[in-house]
Amino acid sequence: MPLSSSTLVRHFYSSFTRDLIGRFTLPLVTGVETKSTYKCEECPDEPVTTETETSYQVSCFIAQDVKYMYTAMRKGMEGTVKKKSAVLGRDADFKKTSPLSRLPGYLTVQFVRFSVGVAPDSGETVARKILKDVKYTMKLDMYEFCTTELQQKLSPMRTKFKEQEEKKMAQKAKLIAEGKLLGPKLAGAAAIAKKDENVEYEPFQFEDDVGSNNSGYYELAAVLTHKGRSSSSGPTSWVALKNGEWAKLDETRLLRTEDQY
User: Fold this and answer.
1) Pick from 152, 164, 255, 259: CA 20 to 30 A from residue 246's CA?
2) How far is CA 185 from CA 169, 172, 189, 192, in A?
3) How many domains does the chain have?
4) 38 has which bridge partners?
């Protein structure tokens, strides 16, 4: 079933309440901060330095040994870089670690699939695409990638998530005992899953950081993919709608799809 672009826009903004739309800006809800630490591997006397960097995505560099998104994210947050050593007076190898010191309300994760190389026949510089299947999940937990300070701030809300999950498990066990759980679906699911209009929701952000994430948990909301081997090929995107449906958008059409994507 075709969808209009205005429908997608309305769906996106429906995740914000009216009073929040005016206050939020893109940098606030997508900005990621990392606290990078540099330690010289060639000179123990070199002081360890730190710096805070801001970006709008977490990059996953795809390699032959990468099968899962989590692996690529770990690799991207640790590595060796060349940097001027004040003690040695020259460039030296520094170990760089970059845990996250701020999580945004909406997190963008980029799979870096293109690398620049030289074509053997023409000698021209070309962008090569790494064609490799990398698995990712519908839910993402960023806790392990954060600084110790941020992990401590995330803990209270994560405890509430755990308590809520335990309540759901207890409810499920009770329904099983009463014979009301039939396979993956609940008997009388409409009554059990009926939305309570008076329910109160916990804040998703820290009080002193508008647009942030205060739990480290995320759910997949959209996917942008690249078709073809050339860097100039067109993209295809999917946007999550309600009830497990997705909207598929390529260069020519906008369609509803099944949740298989």
Assistant:
1) 164
2) 14, 11, 7, 11
3) 1
4) 49, 96
Domain harbouring 124, CATH code:
3.90.70.10
Q: State how far the Cα of 59 lies from the Cα of 100, in Å rounded to an integer.
A: 12
Query: CA-CA distance, 219 to 160, in Å (whole number)?
Result: 17
Instruction: Cite the DSSP H helix spans in the chain.
Output: 5-13, 18-21, 26-30, 69-76, 148-177, 189-192
DSSP string computed for 25-52? -HHHHH-EEEEEEEEESS-TTSPPEEEE
DSSP state of 107: -
- Position 112 in a domain: yes
119-134 residue pLDDT tens = 677 777 777 777 788 8
Q: Give the domain range for residue 138.
A: 31-148
Is 115 among the domain residues?
yes
pTM, two decimal places:
0.74
Q: What is the torsional sign of CA 16, 20, 26, 31?
A: negative
Q: What is the DSSP letter of 244?
A: T
